[in-house]
Amino acid sequence: MEVARVLRRVLVLNVAVAAAKIAFGYASGAISILSDGFHSLTDAASNVAGLVGVRAAGRPPDADHPYGHRKYETVAAAAVTVFLLLLVIEVLRNAFNHLTGRSLPPEIATASFAVMVVTVVINLAVVAYEGREAERLGSEVLMADATQTRGDVWSSLTVIAALAGARAGVPILDPLAALVVAGFIGYAGYQVARTITGILSDRIVISDAELERVVMGVPGVLGCHRIRTRGAADHVFLDLHVWLPADMRLTDAHHLSHIVKDRLMTRYPQITDAVIHIEPPPGG
Fold first, then answer.
1. Over the stretch 77-111, which tens digit does the pLDDT of each residue have?
2. Domains of the chain, each with CATH number or no CATH
3. Is 213 in contact with 268 (CB distance < 8 Å)?
4. Residue closest to 182 by CA, chosen among 146, 158, 206, 149
5. For residue 117, how many other CB atoms are within 10 A of its CB?
6. What predicted TM-score, i.e. pTM, was given to this entire model?
C-alpha cells in the first residue's frame, strides 16, 4: 500500500533525526538538544501507530471482528501516549537538574548548531514530502503526520535560539528551552489522548446537520432522525432512520435507502459502513 510505503520512509528519517539529536545531546550535555531528540521520537512513534492502523484497516472483518480491526490503531496510539508521558518526565527531570545546578552547563560548540540545522532541513523535507503524498493519495494519516512534524520544526528552532543565547553567555536558556520542548511533547500527548478518548467513548464524528442535509437532498425522502456516527475520523460507522411515504412499496423503499447510503458514502468517503433504517413518517 502506498500510504504504508510513505510512512516507512518517513519513519527511517525520523528515527535518524532522533538518534542524531539524542546522541549529540548526551555527548555534549546540551539538555535542549537531548529533549528535542526525545520530541523527534514522538514523530517516529506516530509513524508506527500510523503503520499499525493502515495494516489493521486493510484486514477485512471476520467472525470475531465484524466491525473490522481498525481499533488496533487506537491501541497503538494509547501505547504512544504512555511513551510520551515517560518522555515528558525524563525531559523535566533533566531540565530540573540543570536549573538547580546539579548538572554542569554544557559547552555550546559549533557542531551543536550544525546538528540542529541539518535535522531541521530533514524535517522540512519530510513535511513537504508527506504533504505532497497526502494530497496525491487523499490520506488523512499522512496529512496529520506532516502537521505533527511541522511542530517539531518549531521546537528545533526554539532550541537553536536557546543554544545561541547560551553561547552568548546565558546558559540558563538551555534548560529553559528543554521546558519548552517538554510543553510541545505534552501537548502532542494531550492531542493523542483526546483522540483516543473520543474514539473509545463513541464521540460523534460527523455533524448530524451535515448528514441530514445530504439525506434530504435525495428525492422521495421525507425526513430523517436518530443519526449516529462513531469511530475514527477516517474510519466512520454511521446509522440513521429515514422517513419514507407510508404507501411506498417495500422494494422501492429498499432501493431508495440504497440511494441514500450511496450519496452519504460518496460525500463522506471516510464512512466505512452505513446502516439505513426505513420507516413511515410520524403519524403516517
1. 777 777 778 778 878 887 887 777 665 566 677 88
2. 2-200 (1.20.1510), 208-279 (3.30.70.1350)
3. no
4. 158
5. 13
6. 0.70
